[in-house]
Amino acid sequence: MSKCPDARDCLRDFVVPAMEKIVDKVDFRLSFIGSVDPDDSIQCKHGQTECLGNILSLCANNLYINDTKVSLGFTTCMIMDYTNIPKRSLVENCALEHGVDFNLLNDCVSEDGKGLDLLEASVKRSKEAGVKYSCTVRLDDKFRCIRDGGVWKDCKGGSKVEDLVSDVEKLYKLKNQGR
Asked: Which among 17, 95, 103, 152 is least buried, having the fewest CB atoms inside 10 angstroms?
């Protein structure tokens, strides 16, 4: 996903603008598509540099699990310049811009396979959920919208930011009645 133009467009035009309005109502998780080979190596659609970009995003998410603004900001910063992933200068600049501790991020990526473990778990989670396209937006464990080939598909609730915001707010209200 980290080197995917559809994922870039999805984050920039749909997810991030919605999250600015609903971040406190969402348990946001990034999951990546790919495959795990019999020897446990992981393959990403856009190659091994994409796998490294995905690991960087997952490590940021893991380090800032309670601060979606930081982790999503970092991921979005990187994907906006996806052709330069995983250049150190891009990673350092995005980390600095979004308050991510570069040393902790680097430790996660290189620490005894922690980053690889995060990527493997993410790829398996996507596969178990039936996700085949980057970017697939899910809401309450259901497919909400897909961005593929530069177009929105299967967006039953609409593909505008306000549509996603409205769906999240309705679901949040429903799940939190009586609390």
From this structure: 103
Q: From the CB of residue 161, how many other CB atoms can be counted at a distance below 10 Å?
A: 18
The string of DSSP codes covering the chain is -TT-HHHHHHIIIIIHHHHHHHGGG---------EE-TTS-EE-TT-HHHHHHHHHHHHHHHHTTT-HHHHHHHHHHHHHTGGGTT-HHHHHHHHHHHT--HHHHHHHHHSTTHHHHHHHHHHHHHHHTT--SSSEEEETTEEEEEEETTEEE--TT-SSHHHHHHHHHHHHHHHTTT-
Strands 151-153 and 142-148: antiparallel
pTM score over 0.90: yes
* 22 φ, ψ (degrees, to nearest 5): -130, 15
Q: What is the pLDDT of residues 94-136, one digit of tens each?
A: 999 999 999 999 999 987 779 999 999 999 999 999 999 889 9
Write out residues in the chain with pLDDT < 50, as ranges: none
What pLDDT is attached to residue 111?
76
Give the C-alpha separation, 136 to 76, whole Å: 16
* Count of C-beta atoms within a 10 Å radius of residue 46: 19
pLDDT of residue 104: 95
